[in-house]
Design goal:
Blueprint: E1 3-6, H1 16-31, E2 35-40, H2 50-62, E3 69-72, H3 77-89, E4 93-96, H4 100-108, H5 120-131, E5 141-144, E6 159-163, E7 177-179, H6 181-191, E8 196-200, H7 204-216, E9 223-227, E10 230-232, H8 239-248, H9 262-267, H10 272-282, E11 289-291, H11 293-307, E12 309-311, E13 313-315, E14 317-323, E15 330-334, E16 344-348, E17 350-352, E18 355-361, H12 362-367, E19 373-376, E20 380-387, E21 391-397, E22 405-406, E23 414-419, E24 425-430, E25 442-445, E26 449-455, E27 460-466
Helix pairs in contact: 1-10, 6-7, 10-11
This protein binds one RNA strand through strand 6, helix 6, helix 7, helix 10 and strand 11.
RNA sequence: GCCCCUGUGGUGUAGACCGGUCAAUCAUGCGAGCCUCUCGAGCUCGCGACUCGGGUUCAAAUCCCGGCGGGGGCACCA
């Protein structure tokens, strides 16, 4: 049976790069009717954050993933201790108390450090002292013995467990000896009977380290698949940078629209199917890929266009008077041009003296020439008389004409604030029907773009997704 | 510096393991047109690539060597 896992460090929000590991692993397990495991790799009490566990689960669920088992490595310390002790007893690991500089000097020359030569009895003694809290942070580390002539110094006698005294957000001060990444991964991948490990190529050296431990324990290494780095134009994906930005207040949170986090993408109205499809299409080549926003938009449009109802939104509105128009009170339009079953919306018309009153987008007005005929979309043709502080136009007819069509707002305008992808704000007004929109709804503002309702009350705030 | 990986159109990919069917797939992008009362969607046509040099071979995108380019790692982080 195929068993895969996604093993995030709960030290920050998931971004599109992490999702690649998760989605590929999940998809592989599901495709072969196997098992998918979620495992929190929270063995560094220094940076694990309690709120991230649920945030990560939420992102995974949102993307349509489900897991058959869930673990947190912070619950499994005794297990790691048992293996550490076994390795020390069998002479396959040792407790090193050398200053790190000295150790590296020896390692780089392929020489053993004095600790490596001690008997297993002495190793166990040191180990018990570590466990009992008799060793300060940084004073001792358990190392796995490897071939000291390995061509890559980075894999020689790598560290497996260390002392860390900071309380862990989940298990508090119960432990002061914590396993390091390569150690706990190896133990868990074997204990959980993982058959396929899918991960980024930054783990290439780690894989070599982990293989040495699998050999010591007589275990078989799972099938490993690696993929290259994923970057997005103009987006910092790094967790540390993200967390720093949030702490300094430069970013509004883990869902700041400028970020490439899943939370940010969700906020901008990307649908999970689009993200999933894109990631699966990118696949798992070892070459680094730089994703363009255009591609992400294209994937999202495929889904969003079908679902999103249409509304008129007018940024930077300019008051416009239509003279000689018939006395119309309202117009009724479809919510979605291709889906009559979505229903209709009503746009009431305002009048002032003998004229109908509209609001048009400032940019649209600026582009119009005097005398030019254009169409208030779905309503009437008009021609521009003059552009003052108020724009004056003259009614030309109701029948559809082959002229430019622009959206408009008349009576009952609703104020809308749009959060742009660079986190700047654009203000405008929309037709009254938007007042009933619920948070999270994705709609299309015609000729403007797809937006997602971020806040419904008291003021309507939407986040811009894309054209 | 040392260890390792990788190079197909603007972008993302298929093909490479098992050389010929590849004058190279699909998507996106861009251009033209059709359609649609959106600058959105849909449809049609078009543009655009095997990093370079050598070698092996009847035959190389595919195998080998070298150059150049890109990336990762060299943490008592994950």
């Amino acid at each position: 049976m195929v068993i895969t896992r996604f093993a995030p460090n709960p030290n920050g929000p998931l971004h599109i790069g992490h999702v690649r590991a998760a989605l590929l692993s999940h998809e592989y397990a599901r495709r072969y009717k196997g098992k998918f495991i979620l495992r929190f790799e929270d063995t560094n009490p220094e940076n694990a954050l309690l709120e991230m566990y649920e945030l990560i689960r939420r992102d995974l669920r949102w993307l349509g993933m489900s897991w058959d088992e869930e673990y947190a490595q912070s619950d499994r310390l005794e297990l790691y201790y048992n293996y550490a002790e076994q390795l020390l007893r069998e002479g396959k690991a040792y407790v090193c108390i050398c200053p790190i500089k000295d150790f590296r000097g020896l390692r780089d020359r392929g020489k053993p450090c004095p600790c490596r030569e001690l008997s297993s009895g002495e190793q166990l003694q040191r180990w018990r002292l570590m466990l009992a809290g008799g060793v300060a942070k940084g004073e001792a580390v358990v190392r796995i013995k490897t071939d000291l002539s390995h061509p890559n110094p980075a894999v020689r006698d790598w560290p497996a467990l260390r002392v860390t005294t900071k309380p862990h957000p989940r298990v508090g001060e119960r432990y002061s000896v914590w396993p390091l990444y390569n150690f706990s991964v190896t133990i868990d991948d074997h204990e959980m009977e993982i058959t396929h490990v899918i991960r980024g190529k930054e783990h290439e050296v780690n894989e070599q380290r982990q293989r040495t431990l699998f050999e010591h324990l007589g275990w078989e290494y799972p099938t490993a698949v690696q993929y290259g780095r994923l970057s997005m134009a103009g987006v910092a994906l790094s967790k540390t940078q993200t967390m720093r930005g949030i702490q300094s207040g430069e970013l509004t949170g883990h869902d700041d629209v400028r970020l490439g986090t899943i939370a940010a993408l969700r906020r901008r109205g990307f649908v999970p199917e689009a993200i999933k499809q894109l990631i699966l299409d990118i696949g798992s080549t070892l070459v680094d890929a730089s994703l363009s926003w255009e591609t992400l938009y294209a994937y999202n449009r495929k889904f969003a266009d079908e679902r999103a109802n249409r509304y008129f939104f007018v940024p930077n509105p300019v008051k416009t008077l239509v003279h000689k128009a018939p006395d119309l009170k309202q117009v009724r339009l479809r919510l979605h041009p291709g889906h009559p079953e979505h229903g209709e919306r009503i746009l009431p018309l305002a009048s002032e003296d003998d004229a109908l009153v509209f609001y048009l987008a400032g940019e649209d007005v600026a582009a119009l020439q005097e005398g030019q005929t254009f169409r208030l979309k779905d309503l009437m043709n008009v021609s521009l008389s003059s552009k003052g502080r108020v724009v004056e136009v003259e009614f030309q007819g109701l029948e559809l004409a082959d002229v430019q069509k622009i959206q408009w707002v008349s009576a009952g305008a609703v104020e809308v604030e749009v959060i742009r992808p660079d986190n700047s704000r654009e203000l405008g007004i929309a037709e009254p029907a938007v007042a009933g929109l619920k948070v999270d709804t994705i709609v299309q503002f015609e000729r403007y773009g797809f937006v997602r309702v971020d806040v419904a009350r008291p003021k309507l705030i939407v986040v811009y997704g894309h054209r």
